[in-house]
Specification:
With 148 residues, the protein is of the alpha/beta class. The chain is built from three helices and eight strands. The model has no long low-confidence stretch (mean pLDDT 97).
Length: 148
């Protein structure tokens, strides 16, 4: 499971003309589910992300977590994170989870975050979405559960 985290001051996601999710201070997480992923991968990333100290303290140092600052999450499925770009000129998505399994783990990831008391907004799995965000920093991290 691959998660791209972007620290934001605000973010929203639209499907067509309707806004389906929006947050203020917090993180946007673009989440890609690989064909080998399972709930252990989802739990690993949730356990890493929520206490991950990437928010500034009073001295401007990254010493505070999403939980510490009461931040929100906007979680968006993004199967293109699973693309293999190493051969040829067009990415291959053969290692992305099949849609049913991808949706199941995406929703489980969201549920695990909510179980920890975090406010979560979400995109629409499988939809063409437009994402707007203001990256705070910019601060961006890529986490891969296969690289524990």
């Amino acid at each position: 499971m691959i998660a791209v985290l972007q620290r934001v001051t605000s973010a929203s996601v639209r499907v067509g003309s309707r806004t389906v999710g929006a947050v203020s201070r917090g993180l946007v997480i673009f989440l890609g589910v690989m064909d080998t992923d399972n709930e252990t991968d989802a739990r690993f990333l949730v356990d890493k992300i929520l206490p991950f100290r990437i928010f500034n303290d009073g001295q401007g140092k990254m010493n505070r977590s999403l939980l510490d600052v009461g931040g929100e999450l906007l979680i968006i499925s993004q199967f293109t994170l699973c693309g293999d770009w190493r051969k040829g000129r067009r990415p291959s998505f053969v290692h992305a989870a099949p849609p049913d399994r991808g949706r199941e783990l995406y929703l489980r990831f969201i549920a695990l975050c909510r179980e920890r008391g975090v406010t979560v907004a979400e995109g629409e799995f499988g939809a063409m979405m437009e994402v707007e965000l203001i990256n705070d920093g910019p601060v961006t991290f890529v986490l891969d559960s296969a690289r524990k």
